[in-house]
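Long-time lurker, first post. I've been practising inverse folding by hand and with some scripts of my own, and I keep getting stuck on stretches where the structure tokens seem ambiguous. Below is the full token string for one chain I'm working on. Before anyone asks, I'm not after the true native sequence, just a reasonable design that respects the backbone. If someone could post their per-position residues I'd love to compare against what I wrote down in my notebook.
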């Protein structure tokens, strides 16, 4: 059974930091690209950061470059999002995603989301 479980969200003041975690199970973690998405109220879900299956390449939305860092621990089957210098506009539900295409079929898994609120 595939599971992605996010944790680490919460309320933080502007300029603060949070570290999100996504613990996974039920699939070959190392074979999947891992991403963090977010969705703010009334807005579409957007890609925040992605790391390749091998972990060698990471990409970020322009709005978070220099502030957020995605990483993964293959031994723990966990992907992280370190968020620094948080702004009110970072407020959203953050979702973990794992995706791969294998033999012409796409495998696409999502977590349930964790709320991040940046407010004074």
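-- Answer (accepted) --
I ran through it position by position. Result:
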């Amino acid at each position: 059974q595939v599971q992605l479980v996010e944790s680490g969200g919460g309320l933080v003041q502007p300029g603060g930091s949070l570290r999100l975690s996504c613990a996974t199970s039920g699939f070959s973690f190392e074979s999947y690209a891992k991403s963090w998405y977010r969705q703010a109220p009334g807005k579409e879900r957007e890609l925040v950061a992605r790391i390749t299956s091998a972990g060698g390449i990471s990409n970020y939305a322009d709005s978070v470059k220099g502030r957020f860092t995605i990483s993964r621990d293959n031994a723990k089957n966990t992907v992280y999002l370190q968020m620094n210098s948080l702004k009110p506009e970072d407020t959203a539900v953050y979702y973990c995603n794992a995706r791969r295409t294998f033999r012409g079929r796409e495998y696409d898994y999502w977590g349930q989301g964790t709320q991040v609120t940046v407010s004074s």
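A couple of notes from the structure itself: Residues 93 and 115 are 4 Å apart (CA to CA). The mean pLDDT is 96. Happy to go over any region you disagree with.
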